[in-house]
Write a structure and sequence with these properties.
five-stranded antiparallel β-sheet; three-stranded antiparallel β-sheet; 13% helix
Length: 108
């Protein structure tokens, strides 16, 4: 009946609800063409298989890296010098997919 369907639907969780957005604790332009990103994961780290980091620039597109579940920082090298990028980060799980991305942060 419709009551059971509604109750069952309320119990289904999405990957975004299960995998919280990591907390970016530091972003830094290391040089004119390098960006350093550091984060913490405050959710259930036992279900995290890795992290997805995306750098975006409207004129140059996206650069996406997937790093280990044990990583807490990443440094991009060889970027376009003196260029601002938006960085976003999400935890991922091989079975349920990617979680909630952080809000974009601009790094120059």
């Amino acid at each position: 009946n419709s009551e059971n369907v509604a109750r069952l639907s309320a119990q289904i969780t999405t990957p975004a609800a299960i995998l919280e957005a990591p907390l970016i604790t530091r972003t830094l332009g290391m040089s004119s063409s390098e960006i350093y990103i550091k984060w913490e994961y405050r959710g259930d780290a036992s279900i995290v298989d890795g992290y997805i980091i995306t750098l975006t620039h409207p004129g140059f597109g996206n650069i996406t890296k997937i790093v280990s579940h044990t990583a807490t920082f990443y440094q991009f090298h060889g970027l376009r010098p003196y260029t601002g990028y938006e960085v976003r980060l999400a935890a991922m799980n091989m079975i349920i997919g990617e979680g909630t991305f952080t809000n974009p942060m601009t790094v120059i």
